[in-house]
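note to self — DONT lose this again. spent like an hour looking for the file last time. sequence + predicted structure for the chain T wanted, 158 res
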Amino acid sequence: MDDGTGADAVQKATGRSGAVRWAALLLGALALAPVGAAAKSGEENRLVNYQAVDRAEIENLQRWVAAGHEAWCKDPRLVAAEDLRRIAADFADGAAELNLADLGDGHGAKKLAFEWTPPDGRANYRVTVERFDWLLPIAKDAAAVVWVPTMTEIELHD
C-alpha cells in the first residue's frame, strides 16, 4: 500500500541537494564541451576551449539563483575561480588570487576575464565569464543575473 510518503521523502531529499545539483549541473555541462571545441591556437603553447552554452540549463540556474540559492553565481570572480579549480589542480588560494584581465573590446559589465599564474610561472590561465541579457526577465535585476564561464585559455611557458 503506497500512501505517498515515499514520494514525499524523495521530493524532500531532492530539494535539499538541489542547490549543489544545479551549480554542479551547470559547471559540469560547461566542462563537458565538445572535444572539437578545444583546439590549439596559432601559438603552439596556447590551448583555448570555448565552452558550450546551454540556454535551458542556464535559465534553470538563473531561476534557482533568483529563488535565493547559490548567490555566488552572481559574482564573476567567484564563478571564474570555480571554473579555474576545474582546470588547474594547484589553484587553491581562492578568488582573491585572480587578476581582472583587460578584454579591450568594450564588453563592459557583460563579459569579464580573470587570469591566474601559479607561483612556479609555468603557465597562465584565463577564464572568461559572461552574463546574458536574455536572463534579465528571470533575474528581474541586472545585478542578479548569473555569470557563466564561456572560455578558458591556458598558455604554457617553457
